[in-house]
Structure formats: C-alpha cells, structure tokens
Design goal:
Blueprint lengths: L1 E4 L14 H9 L3 E4 L6
C-alpha cells in the first residue's frame, strides 16, 4: 500500500497531514509513506 501526504494548499500554510512520528508508525507497519517535497519550507 502507498500512502501520500501532501502539504496545505492555503497561502502561508506549511503544514502536512501527518507528524514525523506518524509517518514512522505507518511505515513501520508495512505501507510505504510518501511526503510532498519542500512541504516544510
């Protein structure tokens, strides 16, 4: 399974839908997690 996480689309919002620990927890259980590039800039 592949899970994609994108960044917020509003102006001046730099958040994503998952925290780093959530990404770790999901990926350690099997699915591949992909986070959008430059989401925290």
């Amino acid at each position: 399974m592949l899970i994609g996480v994108s960044k917020e689309i509003k102006n001046h919002e730099y958040r994503v839908g998952l925290t780093p620990i959530s990404v770790f927890e999901l990926s350690s259980r099997g699915p591949e997690v992909v986070v959008e590039h430059n989401c925290c800039v």
